[in-house]
Amino acid sequence: MGTINSALSLITGALDADQNALNVVSNNVANASNTAYTREVPNWTENQPISINGMAYGTGVTVTGGVSQRDRVLEQRLQQQTQASASSTALLTALTTLQSSFTPASGTSTSGDIGTDITNFFNSHTQLESDPTSNPLRQQILSSANTLAGDISSRAASLAAQQSSLDQSANTVIAQVNAISASLAQVNVAIQSQSPNQDAGPLEDQRQADLTQLAQLIGVNQIATEQNGLSVTTTGGQLLVSEGQLFQITTGAVNGVTHFFVGGTDVTSALASGGGQIGGLLTARDQSIPATLASLDQLAYGIATQVNTVNNAGTDLVGDNGNAGNIFNAPTQVAGSAQSMQVVLTDPNKIAAAGLGLGAGDGGNAVSAASLAAQAVINGQTPSNFYSNLVSTLGATVSETTIQGTALSASLSQLQSQRDSLSAVSLNEEAASLQEFQRSYQAASQVFTILNSVYASALNLGVETAVA
Amino acid sequence: MRVDPFFVVNLSAPLDQTQTTQQQLTDELSSGLRVTSIGQDPVAAAENVQLLNQIQRDDSFTQTTSLTQGLLQVTDSALGSVVTQLNQAVGLATEANNGTLNASDLKSISNQIAGIRDEVLSLANTSYQGQFVFGGSQTGSTPFTLDNTTTPATVTYNGDADVNTLMSPNGQSIQLNVPGNQIFTSSTADVLGTLNNLIADYATGTAGGGVADTASLTSALNFVSQQRVGIDNSINRLNTASGVAKSESIQLTAVQTSLMQADIPAVSTQLALAQSQQSALISVISALGSGSLFDKL
User: Fold this and answer.
1) ipTM of the assembly?
2) Which of A14-18, A255-259, A456-460, B288-292 has the least mean pLDDT?
3) Which of A124, A370, A422 sits opposite B2 (nearest CB)?
4) How many domains does chain B have?
5) In terms of domains, do A41 and A135 share one?
């Protein structure tokens, strides 16, 4: 009797176990489309056998829940690659916008092209050499100067505008980072209190999801601590989350540009090289755009100062001898000269085409102005060559980033595939498990039925009944 | 060995990629340009800037030369007329010097030479498009003025000795004018001065110093012819430079075009490949994505 009872309770336990296993499978199937979910495998544990009079009796099985099939190392590698890829993508987006200011001109469509503007400006001086008193030719010099100054200053303005929009995007990203760090700290506390010695299942899923989101936004390193805890630092080493403790990233303006601080340390340049979306945004904002803007400034400064010097070294049509005035507004320093470049001369008669002291028919000073195009007046290069270098440098950066981005996303999808083949729910496998547990349940319930009738027979011992 | 369950879903990304590729290739076909952004081919973009610079410079120079040709032609023809006039004057002076003419004939010759002098003076004051050609850089005021009160009459040069040049794209310096004092009142051969002397010589009715002055006139004539050669050289050099600029522009345009233009046959082939890749991918996705074991339970 005792053994029948224990058999009954044993098989009841089996029914419970099968039911729990079915629950795990159902949970898997329910989460089949959830990319942040890690599939669980039911954890079958054999119960402790009982020993009576030297004989061991088994006590059945228990399913204590699901075991998440995850590889922490693989997930970490995936997050590292996500950071690199996100950084590259963000940088490429910014660079694509940047390069659209410098679209190559073709023979037929040259409007807005700075290279063409430079050539046209100096060519208009060459034309003046042949007929120095011609009013239409002088007007042409002024109008080509206006086109050149207009195009350079508007390009510089759009670069500055792009910088400030990147600044705003960076702020938004950091706000998101702070929110995720807060949620990560909370999850850490929950995990450490609930399952300090084993995988935390759904809580761990949530933590990994937070980490993946974080990796999209900012470059981080993970450090596992005791009792299933986690610390997160930026790639540059600044602590963001330490188990349950949170360190926010704060912002502050430095020279009109937003800088980011953890505690009191300025981490902006560390963030720029660290990865994640913020890395790409800050690299574009603090390196790519300023470099191009600096080149434009040098071009504008060089052309403006040189042309002004030449105009003040000749004689114009209204008798000014060596003080005809500036054609472009004179920049005081290189920085900012592109955005402020403009034509201040309005009277075409004040273009000093003649050499000093000579009559109106001389075009010697126009020759000097035109020859600036072939002199190394901009940082050791002719204006046209300097612009050509600007274009090739920027283009090379874009090309390099594109290639890098393609390689990174290819390896990222490989890693993702690897992770998914381990941790994602395979419907075929779940269907097979479902059948297995269904059969197991059916078998257990069949055993129960038989045990029940055996019990009945035992109860009816000594009473004559027909065999049922 | 387990398989990535999201494999078929992830195929949508390569499918997007084939669509992007098709779009890019179609853009290339419709615009005809291979390089639409500097990141696509940085080296070509940089070269493009420099090629366009040279082409535009050559084209601008060609335009300028057609304006300048007119000026040089006018100068040349003025000098040619001066030579004709001086030949006439030499003929008249020689006739006057042979001693067979009487006083009134000599006076008549003096008047004829005065007419020639006036003609040469007006040629010396030639203007082109409102600018005096022989004034050096002082093109706004009349280069030569005549003072008839003195005997012989005096001619004053109001211009200067400045020579104006035009720079060709390959650095040649082409002279555009000859200053008037270099041709008409130079110390080597003073055309107008000699004419005035001859007029004064024959005005009295005698030959006077006519023989010596006739010799001076002959050398002045030769001198003017030499100066004319300088202008003719400029015309030739201008023509040559213009021709060089034109042919360089054509060559460079061909280079620039082949650098930046799309290779239509190659692009069409790539487009066909991309299209077939896309349709293959679509049929793979629909074949693989159908069904799991659950359908059979």
Assistant:
1) 0.89
2) B288-292
3) A422
4) 1
5) no
